[in-house]
Write a structure and sequence with these properties.
The structure holds two protein chains of two kinds. By secondary structure, chain A is an alpha/beta fold. Chain A is built from ten helices and 14 strands. Helix content of chain B is 66%, strand content 9%. A five-stranded mixed sheet of chain B has the order 2-1-3-4-5, with helices on both faces. The chains are: A alpha/beta, B alpha/beta. Chains A and B meet through helix 3 of A and helix 2 and helix 11 of B. Bound molecules: adenosine-5'-diphosphate and magnesium ion. Magnesium ion binds next to helix 1 of chain A. The site of magnesium ion has 4 residues of chain A, from helix 1.
Amino acid sequence: MGEVGPSPRDLAIDVRGLEKRFGGVTAVNGVDLQVPKGMIYGFLGPNGSGKTTTLRMLCGLLKPDGGSGTRLRYDIHTEAREIKRRIGYMTQKFSFYEDLTVEENLNFVARVYNIPDRARTVGRIMEDLDLACRRNQKAGQLSGGWKQRVALAACLSHDPALLLLDEPTAGVDPEARRSFWNIIHRLASQGITVLVTTHYMDEVERCHRITYLAGGRVVTSGTPREVSDRSGLVAFAVSGAGLDDLRQTLGREKAIRGVSALGAQIVVTGRDREAMERALAHVNAGHLSWEQIPPSFEDVFVELIHQATESQGKGAWT
Amino acid sequence: MDLARRFRFSWSAFVAMVVKEFVQMRRDRVTLAMMLGIPLLQLLLFGFAINTNPKQLPTAVVAGDQGPLTRGVMTALQNTGYFRVTVLTSSSRYADRLLERGRVQFVVTIPVDFERRLAAGSRPAMLIEADATDPTAINNALAAAAQPRNWVLDDVLSGPLAARLGEPPGFEVVIHRRYNPEVITQYNIVPGLIGVILTQTMVIITSIAVTRERERGTLETLLVMPIGPLAVMMGKIFPYIFVGYFQLAIIVAAAHFIFGVPVFGSLALLSVVTIVFIASNLAIGFIFSTVAKSQLEAVQMTFFFFLPSILLSGFMFPFRGMPEWAQVIGSALPLTHYLRVVRGILLKGFGAPEVAPHLGPMFVILLVIVIAALVRYRETLD
Ligand SMILES: Nc1ncnc2c1ncn2[C@@H]1O[C@H](COP(=O)(O)OP(=O)(O)O)[C@@H](O)[C@H]1O
Ligand SMILES: [Mg+2]
């Protein structure tokens, strides 16, 4: 892609060609991932695209079938044990003890890591994450957002340099999501590298850089802006009467690659701005108006997947 | 070597596991109740069977005639309270069939020439055959029958024969225990029960305790933390050793005070040996938990261990009576060795020197199990 990457020693994660097969299924298929230190790195993709599997390989829970690289300069094949003390991994499904209280869970983790001043460390983390008032509640009785905080808190007692968060905001209400992201930003400002998976498109912009994964392959990587620009996607918000009928008509236009609803408007996307405007003018009977808007990341990713499959298709022909 | 790495042990991680397990154990009331309730229930059920002194057992009498002597013997038998004559026949083959099918517990045979020989003073023998498949059921009855003076009352027989009975009686009682000649006594069963109950509950508890982590997803947390297989296993085993001891105390106390099982040896010695046995069973449960995908599967698997333990350890059948292949399997089971120790200590007053030879195999088995468990334990999710 022609970018000048950061030098390897500034990379918290540097893996290439990562591969994992389950029986006949290739869950992760040649994934490259370079995550600079101190960054919030978004790892996106639809369900089943291989995000969790990649994270598990990174933290040593699964053995990669192919590829090479390091995280925190520990080799991904041989140093699964060594990485454990330096990494914090928050699983997709809450995986602490629901029959223990918040504090008991945190104490358990701190004991395992043999944290010297356990009571103070656990107390400080609970303060930091506003968990102190719930210290004596059983983890199983907390709501989704609070559970996620407990899980995050449990990743922090051993001062990890790298956090792997697997869909930490899934199923969490919008306000809790926002405060969770604030915490992530605070941690990053303290120098912790955060790799976070999500499939909420509105969370893309909260990341410094992202990688979008589909079918176990990297579709694109870069800053959110770069990714958006790279797609070359142009979007128009169209308003007016009779939009429902129009959707079908527009969908048949060659210049228009996607039509989707956005409230009372519809959004049409394509790559050739002039051709799109001609197409809109063509179907316009005088009651439509449109304006160009930045394409949503959802549209960008759909477009990028199309482009990837198209170029693969071409590759197969030549 | 990879095995050596698996033996690496983090003390803090072990303590973390132990503390966590204790808290979880305290909160999991159902399992705790089960752990303490099962031994009591089982002991009471077995104990009830052991302790009963069944009376009025169905009895067939084989006699050539129905003369006064035969009737007299029948009455006397019934007077002991243990025998209830349900069949009177002259065909010993028919009586045999009844015994074989379990329709009667005893067959009492009065030989054809019994009366004549009694009169001649040549001490004839009366034969009592017993179905000894359930030895505890017949012990008291046979004990009563073996002493004719207890049951042959003078006033039952009259005339010249009465004088012949006299003291000592002028005839003998021959007892044949059939189907289970090597009678296992009741005392054998209760101490054995200690081993059986510990086998059952200890294996299940660890197999569930680890599988539960997998089922609830907490295993992923454990695996990603620096907590080696040994610390996980020891942390899972240690708290339940206490549960095992609690069970031991309950069973021994109940056996002694409710069922009168003697305690000749040292309870301290028994406690020391028992720790090896409990740990073995907990480690076996740990192995199952590394294989099983769900708690249900884990429980089902434990039966594959529990059944041979019960059948081939010498608990159910006399060890020396088993075919050689069964003895080989039996020798590999912790229960086999523990039974000898626990019976020896409680009933024969074994001391350390007598126990030592049995302890060796127990340690070997424990070591093999622990290594197998550590090898089986996966440190990744693959
Ligand atoms: N343990 C496993 N065994 C078999 N297949 C798996 C396993 N874990 C994941 N997969 C498969 O690998 C693919 C990627 O899964 P995953 O990494 O969980 O995706 P994501 O986290 O992006 O939703 C899916 O098709 C999933 O079914
Ligand atoms: Mg996932």
